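Section 4.2 – Deliverable D4.2 (structural model, holo form)

The reporting period included a commitment to supply a predicted holo structure for the target in complex with adenosine-5'-triphosphate. Inputs used:
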Amino acid sequence: MELDARAKINLTLDILRRREDGYHDMQMVMQSVTLADRLTVTPARGAEGQAASDLRFLPTGNKNLAQVAAAAFREAVGLGGEVDVDIQKRVPVCAGLAGGSADAAAVLRAMNRLSGAGLSPDRLAEIGARAGSDVPFCVLGGTALAEGRGERLTPLPPLPPCRIVICKPPFSVSTPQLFGRVNVRKIVRRPDTAGVVAALEAGDLAGVARRMYNVFEDVMEPRRYAEISSIKAELIDCGALGASMSGSGPSVFGLFDSEAAAREALARLRDSYRDVFLCGPGPAEFPAEV
Ligand code: ATP
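Output (structure tokens):
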């Protein structure tokens, strides 16, 4: 079976509190995008399933999130057997775009169909939580409010049609370090999550775009923060309705209502950056459920 593993962006990312167990309670409006890895999932040739990708530095075997998800499915359902997963990697790695989680989620959807298990989307998302906190959202796709560690999902009306430019600057950010720098009581700037949800309900793209924000931006190292800010400024200068960082970064994205303006941003950012993409909002994976 061949399928797309769509990446996600955070229209908002807020941290509500630090929990007793050391994790944080998050509140995020997540949106899947058409930028995707291409996966081929087949019954394993050998006794154990393999994961192979066109990126040499990605883990293979059972360290690859695609195989972690396959094992979680087998363990939870007792069906599915060993699978080989071939990944054409298009989503940049360690970018705040949940590329690995997207692969894991795509494997779960494939195994659900190949095995005939026919689990409900919610059950599949629940199994996905064992492979990572962004996997449940990637199982369902579309637009959703994610709470808790990211596993409590409420589907939202889709982002109105638009163009999305994503730019990943060439450095990576350590997610645990970022969380370490957040002092929840001292967060001064937060996204207007309720306003974004209301704008989605009203089909108001500009209303969504101007309320987006990611609280991790404020705790980036100053040099990194300056680069994130300059990419956002470039996107806005080209006509983006709004721009924000995704997840724990460093990818930055802008929402556009004009194809020409989005193409202008793509061209300008490509003068300085290698990883720049033009895509659109991704659909819900189980539309009947939304
Ligand atoms: P998030 O937005 O969920 O924080 P991310 O975009 O920052 O995720 P990913 O690209 O999902 O990060 O990958 C993070 C780590 O997972 C990398 O260290 C990578 O080696 C490992 N990994 C394992 N399997 C995969 C996979 N199939 N694709 C990408 N990364 C993988």
